[in-house]
Design goal:
Layout lengths: L1 E11 L2 E10 L4 E12 L1 H17 L4 E6 L2 H7 L8 H14 L4 E6 L6 H19 L2
Parallel strand pairs: 1-4, 4-5
Antiparallel strand pairs: 1-2, 2-3
Helix pairs in contact: 1-3
Length: 136
Amino acid sequence: MIQAFIDGASRGNPGLSGVGVVIYTQTKRIVTYREFIGSKTNNQAEYQALRRALQLGNLIASRITILSDSNLLVNQRLKKFRIRNSELKNVSREIDNLENSYEEVRYSYISRTLNEEADFEANRAIDDYIKYLKSP
């Protein structure tokens, strides 16, 4: 089973946003990923990070644990909270399909301090985009 640490970052709500994904086998980091995703809300960025982690993880293993510091995302995926936002409902259906390609998908809420690598990648995606805009 692999572990995917995920984070979505948004500077503003909505605002410039990025996703970060860091995937581990038992103790070895095997994937580090970041992507600028345009102007999104923080929740939209979190869901995009999840979508990307499931896509990347599917290339590696059939069992995955998603670790996120978004209490809302984790509880929505565990069906403890309802999804009210229409855009998140659409992404959630995509995620349902991605989950079906796995033998097992687990979700775990973690503190922000345990998610620093994914947070770093999500914010770096935004920083890289801003640098690109400012370059001649």
